[in-house]
Amino acid sequence: MTNQTAPASPDPGRFTRRIDELRSDLLGADPYVLAEKTKTTYHPLLEGRGDFRLALWERQMVVSFPEFVARDVTTQKVSGPMEQALLLYYFNISDGVPLARRWISFSELPNGKFYNQAFQGYTGRYLARAFENDQQSFEHAAKTLGGEAYSLGDVSFSFRALPCIPLMVVFWRGDDEFPSSIQILFDAAASHYLPTDAYAILGSTLTRRLAAAKEL
Questions:
Q1: Digit-coded pLDDT (tens) for 8-52
Q2: How far apart are CA 165 and CA 191, in angstroms?
Q3: Which domains occur in the chain, in start order?
């Protein structure tokens, strides 16, 4: 078993400080239009009130309307600032553009080149050290998290963070000359649904979950 220090992750402070502003930006929004753009389900309750239902990773979430406060359906606990901000950005930015079904690297996201070296350090390079050349262990971890097998690299799996937010993790086996490598990819339409900062956090989250699932 290889002991790994948890990967350094992006600072969520700047991401979460805008929560109140993001809620204000959604005032007066049509919930049915939002549901269509975000591919969520809207349930009307009383006049002018309701909630959105969606999955965040594998967890079922409910987001109240018009307050836009998220909570876990199973536990009924209100989400922390990080999840609240992520979902608020999703509702603010989503414009309903269809997914491109084409995968791009973090460097191809808006302003991604500037942060790409850091992103690869706490995602792909960290995972490559954690799994080394153990493809079987990688497959086990990905399947444990409900990953869907794909046909990139030697083995790859896609994961759904939000209804319109897929992430791909690609594993290339190493050999005598080159070590194994792993990379997290995003749909080419990613910028239509979240800012680049949010994808950095999602990539870090998926990295941590895969590393933890290796031990299960």
A1: 566 777 778 899 999 999 999 999 999 999 999 999 998 889 999
A2: 10
A3: 13-93 (no CATH), 103-213 (3.30.310)
For residue 31, count other CB atoms closer than 10 A to its CB: 21
Tokens at residue 26, please?
């959604």
- Give pTM, 2 decimals: 0.91
Pair of tokens at residue 210: 């895969």
- Could you give the C-alpha distances from 87 to 40, 48, 60, 114, 177, in angstroms and in order? 11, 20, 13, 25, 43
- Put residue 91 in one of left, alpha, beta given phi > 0 → left and psi -120 to 50 → alpha: alpha
Alpha helices in the chain (DSSP H): 13-16, 19-25, 31-38, 81-93, 112-122, 124-131, 135-144, 196-213
Structure tokens at 100: 């491109």
Write b or e for each residue in 82-109: b if 16 or more Cβ atoms lie within 10 A of its Cβ, otherwise e. ebbbbbbbbbbbbeeeeeeeebbbbeeb
199 C-beta neighbours (distance < 10 Å), count? 25
